[in-house]
């Protein structure tokens, strides 16, 4: 009986320690997600403006006289995929859902750029070739990571003829909902309906496009990266919240069992004393 009570006390202490660790990680993620959401909201107007402006100009530009890898329609089996995940776990099913989506896309002609250690480790097991890998980090990603990824993409476009460029990431719907999604980035698609512009181009729309396209890719990449980071923090906060609650529930149940066992021991000792009188 004494050994059982000591075992219960150790298990209660372990459960309480786990709950404290989970609560600390929950609070850290809560502070990070607030900053990340602010970055997403501040970046969204600029990203939407650049995206709409680029696609609008494409509808008015003479593309037969303008050649750029970001808009060229190439018939090729090769596709570049940027897969974004977290560097660490403890974020629920976020990475698992991402891996399932990656398996659906996997083929031997897929050229994968990974951002995050988890997706890098998983991608090595697939048929697609990993051509570059970068770390996501544990803080809000710096804008400089975008230039490294674009350099890899441009080098691949210069030496090969891929049909396009896609991003696999965790789309942030809310703190409680993150969804694995694939976004087609290149080639850039013009607006299906011609938009009337309130301005004219000097000298030509093609000259503006050549300067605008690099900014377009930068903005889309960074917007997606910080959204994926926000999803990671939201998923981790909820996962740690659930872990904390479960640990406290286990501690309460073990405490109840401990008290029952201790009371039973005391009752048996009293009965033993009463029988000896």
Short description:
Helix content is 60%, strand content 14%. By secondary structure, the chain is α/β, with parallel strands linked by helices. Strands 3-2-1-4-5 form a 5-stranded mixed β-sheet, sandwiched between helices.
In words, what does this structure look like?
A five-stranded mixed β-sheet has the order 3-2-1-4-5, sandwiched between helices. Helix 4 (144-159) crosses helix 5. With 277 residues, it is α/β, with parallel strands linked by helices. It has a single domain (37-234), classed as Pyruvate Kinase, Chain: A, domain 1, CATH 3.40.1380. Helices cover 60% and strands 14% of the residues. A hairpin with a 2-residue loop joins strand 4 (164-174) and strand 5 (177-186). The chain has helices at 2-60, 94-105, 117-123, 144-159, 205-276; strands spanning 79-84, 110-115, 129-134, 164-174, 177-186.
- Count of helices? 5
> How would a textbook summarize the main sheet?
5 strands, mixed
Estimate the mean pLDDT confidence.
85
Strand order of the largest sheet: 3-2-1-4-5
Strand content: 5-15%
Q: Which CATH first-tier class would you pick?
A: Alpha Beta
How big is the Rg? 27 Å
Number of domains: 1
Order of helices and strands: HEHEHEHEEH
Detail the poorly predicted runs.
none
CATH architecture: 3-Layer(aba) Sandwich
The helix/strand class is alpha/beta
CATH superfamily: ATP synthase, F1 complex, gamma subunit
């Amino acid at each position: 009986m004494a050994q059982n009570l000591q075992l219960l006390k150790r298990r209660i202490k372990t459960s309480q320690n786990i709950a404290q660790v989970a609560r600390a990680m929950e609070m850290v993620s809560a502070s990070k997600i607030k900053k990340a959401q602010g970055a997403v909201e501040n970046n969204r107007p600029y990203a939407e403006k650049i995206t709409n402006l680029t696609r609008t100009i494409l509808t008015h530009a003479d593309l037969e006289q303008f050649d750029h890898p970001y808009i060229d329609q190439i018939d090729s089996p090769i596709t570049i995929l940027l897969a974004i995940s977290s560097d660490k776990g403890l974020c629920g099913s976020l990475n698992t859902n991402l891996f399932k989506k990656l398996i659906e896309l996997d083929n031997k002609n897929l050229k994968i750029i990974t951002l995050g250690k988890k997706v890098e480790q998983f991608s090595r097991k697939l048929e697609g070739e990993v051509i570059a890998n970068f770390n996501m980090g544990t803080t809000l990603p710096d804008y400089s990571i975008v230039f490294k990824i674009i350099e890899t993409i441009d080098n691949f476009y210069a030496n090969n003829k891929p049909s396009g460029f896609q991003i696999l990431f965790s789309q942030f719907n809310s703190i409680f909902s993150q969804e694995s999604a694939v976004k087609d980035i290149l080639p850039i698609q013009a607006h299906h309906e011609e938009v009337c512009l309130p301005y004219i181009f000097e000298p030509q729309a093609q000259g503006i496009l050549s300067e605008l396209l690099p900014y377009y890719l930068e903005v889309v990449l960074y917007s997606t990266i910080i959204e994926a980071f926000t999803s990671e923090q939201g998923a981790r906060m909820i996962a740690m919240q659930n872990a904390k609650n479960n640990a406290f529930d286990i501690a309460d149940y073990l405490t109840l069992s401990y008290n029952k066992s201790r009371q039973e021991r005391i009752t048996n000792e009293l009965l033993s004393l009463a029988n000896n009188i």
